Amino acid sequence: MSAWYPRVTVPATSANLGPGFDAFGVAIAVHFTVTAGPREAQRIVPTGEGEGELPTDDRNLVWRALRRYCDRFGVDVPDVTVMAENEIPLERGMGSSAAAAVAGAALGRALTDGGGKDQQLIDLAAELEGHPDNAAAAVLGGLVVCQGGVATRLEPTDRLVPVLCVPADRQSTITARAVLPETVSLKEAAANGARAAIVLAGLAGLIAWDPAAMWDVLHEPPRLEMMAPSGRLVRDLRAAGIGACLSGAGPSVLALIESGNEVGLGVIRSVAGQEAGKQFDVRPSRWDLAGASVGRDARISGPCRTN
After folding, report:
1. Measured between alpha carbons, how far is 282 from 284 in angstroms, rounded to an integer?
2. Do 17 and 197 contact (CB within 8 A), yes or no?
3. What DSSP character marks residue 143?
4. Residue 48: how many other CB atoms lie within 10 Å
């Protein structure tokens, strides 16, 4: 019997958003798309970012997440090949690992009809990827707050738009987490919490956006020192009155400006080019509100086998 093969599209994500360390995340309209198809020699066929360097066999994170989903929900593993088209730069703080884990889990659910709520997909992806903020934003889209692993989704305001400044250099999350301090002062932690509330309310459109609140003492200082070009860019953007922070663990920088603010975009391009040594690709984007979405590929149909 013939069956349509599913296609899953997952957005890039930016976590932390300055003072919301390991709690805030937002989905951005840069995408990772996986499509199941009849079994071929390669288990995974990657194109785009990561092509030629990511595993094409069962070690690939997409496939490991798909298998983890099947094990978790007691369903047979489909015997398929997965085409993976990736727009998300690797190891740049844009949630490429979370996108791969979410894509594999969501594809497993779509292929097997094995069930499971979105929160369970978030949990599964977080187990593989390490923390839930990126995974939650990738599954749910929009703006998320994670507390105790449970995600709450908010709608980001359309009055703000994200601008990503993406360097050629990479930075692993493991290395970026290794430099974090074990303690901060109570005074600093309290002030950081207040700024986090202001950033969250501003991103959700509940109050006027205050770019001066978008800075952090928990994770950014040692990371900005370690990633010197990113540190200079964040410092200079803030000095120009633009809200900016590391995107996730870096080294990409996320800047936020008002929608239609061409002057602000020009400032970002100028600062990224002149002050930071022309090391950053400035990419205006938009929020992704859909999160992980499932369609079907009209180009491919055929028997969907399990083993």
Report:
1. 7
2. no
3. E
4. 14
Query: 295 has which bridge partners?
Result: 7
Whole-angstrom distance, CA of residue 258 vs CA of residue 154: 19
- From the CB of residue 229, how many other CB atoms can be counted at a distance below 10 Å? 21
CB 11 within 8 A of CB 28: yes
Round to whole Å and give the CA distance between 237 and 268: 7
Tokens of 139: 């599954």
Q: Which single residue is written with the structure tokens 């970026």? A: 176
Please tell me what DSSP assigns to residue 273.
I
CA 283 remoteness from chain centre: 15
Host H or E run for residue 92: none
Do residues 140 and 100 touch, judged by C-beta distance below 8 A?
Answer: no
Residue 186 to residue 191: CA distance in whole angstroms: 9
Domains and CATH numbers, the chain: 3-154+288-302 (3.30.230.10), 160-284 (3.30.70.890)
What DSSP designation does 270 have? H
Which tokens belong to 24? 């805030």
pLDDT, one tens digit for every residue, the chain (307 residues): 235 789 999 999 999 999 999 999 999 999 999 999 999 999 999 999 999 999 999 999 999 999 999 999 999 999 999 999 999 999 999 999 999 999 999 999 999 999 999 999 999 999 998 789 999 999 999 999 999 889 999 999 999 999 999 999 888 888 878 888 889 999 999 999 999 999 999 999 999 999 999 999 999 999 999 999 999 999 999 999 999 999 999 999 999 999 999 999 999 999 998 654 558 999 999 999 999 999 976 444 443 333 3
Secondary structure (DSSP) of 66-82: HHHHHHHHT-PPB-EEE
Handedness of CA 181, 182, 187, 192 (dihedral sign): positive
Q: What is the DSSP string of 232-259?
A: HHHHHHHHTT-EEEESTTSSSEEEEEET
